[in-house]
Amino acid sequence: MNILIINASPRRNGVTSGLLGEMSSNMDKGHVVETVRIDDLAMRPCIGCLKCRPDKPCILPPDGAQSLAEKIRWADLLVFGVPVYWGNMPGTLKIFFDRNVPLFEYCEARSVRYIPLPRLKGKAAMLVVTAGCPFPYSLLPSQITGTVRSLKTVLNAGGVKVLSVLRVSDAFEFEKKKDAYMRKAARLARSI
Ligand SMILES: Cc1cc2nc3c(=O)[nH]c(=O)nc-3n(C[C@H](O)[C@H](O)[C@H](O)COP(=O)(O)O)c2cc1C
Known about the structure:
five-stranded parallel sheet, 7 strands, about 35% helix, binds flavin mononucleotide
């Protein structure tokens, strides 16, 4: 299986990166695994022209938004590591999604009969979502739950099946519960 790990944390040695690293090293060696750090990609924000709809290339000059889209097409399984920023995904990951509307769904923007067609059907995803907020507040709609909902809005539009969500609370005190979270991450990776 082709597995693409997408790390949306800018912190190379942060909680999200640590958990994704643990998942990567516990995946069966028969898989082809690639990791991309969103912060390593240069991406201009979407300019909202919607000229990409229903199925055209983005009019902006090619950049990281296209190269990551190619890797998503290649992958069978997407593993997203996402720190909660203001109850949502980091803006960098959102820029990638905004720049790739037709990667996820084909829809005629001006059509009266709005029938979106998922473009990534058959692919699956696992989510690792980390929050500074302690449990149970971390599960409020304004925290992890809102972030998962936002991610699922895009992935569900694409027909990507979300297999699991690892919710990590209290990231500022991560050391205290690190072993338990690492075990969970390893178990999820071995289940693939
Ligand atoms: C700009 C910004 C906004 C944040 N907003 C939230 C938030 O709304 N809720 C929360 O629980 N933590 C919030 N945090 C804390 C991050 O979720 C936490 O630092 C992160 O999960 C740690 O992951 P990392 O070590 O991979 O960076 C925020 C952090 C930053 C930098």
